[in-house]
Known about the structure:
This protein is α/β, with parallel strands linked by helices. It is built from 6 helices and 4 strands.
Amino acid sequence: xxxxxxxPPVEMAVTAxxxxxxxxxxxxxxxxxxxxxxSPSMSGRFSLPFLLAHGxxxxxxxxxxxxxxxDYTAAQYRGVQTPTLILYGDRDTRLAPQALQNxxxxxxxxVAVLPxxxxxxxxxxxxxxxxxxxxxxxxxx
Length: 141
């Protein structure tokens, strides 16, 4: 994610529209057609604006306790038809419940909870994470 960790800041990443545009450019540069967007934690600042504006360009969306879900309304989420797998660890008691409360308004969602996993559930329980993710991917058109 630009501006996090050791990555340099990107000017366009300051606003939600800029972050959406940044992600549009990434998909365009990579030549991706209807990708599945997997979005853990801080990447929610990029994925959510993209999902709400261009969800029809995604084959699927996999939010993993992303930040920023409270920035959008239930009505905005209800307008998104992208198949979604809301995935989180049951030991993530801070961010995951808030994300679930907001993202459950996505009409085409299902939920996978990884027992014994924390916020970085894909690191805590990689086999269970991959089973849930691959099961979701297999059901996409």
